[in-house]
Amino acid sequence: MRRHLEDNTTLLALAFLVNLIVIFGTGAVWYAEGGAITLVGGVVGALLLLSGSMLPLIKGRGQDGVEKPLWPPLMLLVVPVAVLAVALPAWIVTEIRAARPVDLTHDFELDPPGPFEQGMTVTASAHTDQPKSRLFITFAASEYDPAGPVCVPSSKLSVTLRSGPEHDGPQSGRPGQEFTFDLGRNHKDIRLAVRMTAEPNCALDLSVASARVDD
Q1: What is the distance between the alpha carbons of residues 186 and 215, in angstroms, rounded to a whole number?
Q2: Which of 58, 73, 169, 197 has the maximum number of C-beta atoms within 10 A of its C-beta?
Q3: Cα–Cα distances in angstroms (integers) from residue 84 to residues 19, 65, 91, 155, 213, in the given order
Q4: What is the b/e burial string over 179-210, where b = at least 16 CB atoms within 10 angstroms of the residue's CB?
Q5: 3-class SS at 211?
């Protein structure tokens, strides 16, 4: 290795090119994943200065007849290896987490909270910092007054997406049935209108049994 790094200008130039590719590539991915431009620019600039400072040392290292130090050219290899050793696993972990569904079951709020009576419309809303393109949600209903008439088996829900780039028509189903909505891209705030159809004098407790967003 010493023999190749001492006098092989092509190898040194290639090592510096690898530095530039790794540094700028990592900075671009970091910024695309939401990194602050000032922080990304500062780190990229510091790495470039470190790599650039090696070039004069490499060019003038040692004198004729004196053994040339090996560490300056090695720095051109250490920088990209160090950057990749940190950035690559972090990026892989981020992508794996981003590919998983995001559970929002406990994030949804109902307004008004209940009881839920015939003809009422309730707003179900939630916020997520990990937006996905589709919402899967299931509502659960139970009798508000156990001594009253049994209403859950005959009740129906009409659910409409009230947020997002496109407003689809209402979806109808019973409590316990899963509803699916297309949210679009980068949609963090979700709002649904839920309307109940039931027998007269029925009152139900409504809740979100499960909710998740996924691609």
Answers
A1: 11
A2: 73
A3: 10, 37, 10, 57, 31
A4: bebebeeebeebebebbbebeeebbbbbbbee
A5: strand
Q: Read out DSSP for 47-71? A: HHHHHHHHHHHHHT-S-TTSPPPSH
* The dihedral sign for the CA sequence 33, 34, 39, 40: positive
> Considering the entire predicted model, what is its pTM?
0.59
For residue 3, the model assigns a pLDDT of 58
Burial profile 54-78: b = 16 or more Cβ within 10 angstroms, e = fewer:
beeebeebeeeeeeeeeebbebbbb
Exposed (0-12), middle (13-18) or buried (19+): which is 141, by Cβ within 10 Å?
A: buried
Q: What is the pLDDT of residue 65?
A: 46
| Separation of alpha carbons 19 and 13, rounded Å | 10
- What span, in angstroms and rounded, lies between the C-alpha atoms of 180 and 138? 9
Enumerate residues 6+ apart whose C-beta is below 8 A from 207.
Answer: 110, 139, 140, 141, 142
CA gap 154, 164 in Å, rounded: 31
DSSP lists the bridge partners of residue 79 as none
Residue 210 · residue 105 · CB < 8 Å: yes
153 DSSP 8-state letter:
G
Alpha helices in the chain (DSSP H): 2-7, 9-32, 37-59, 71-99
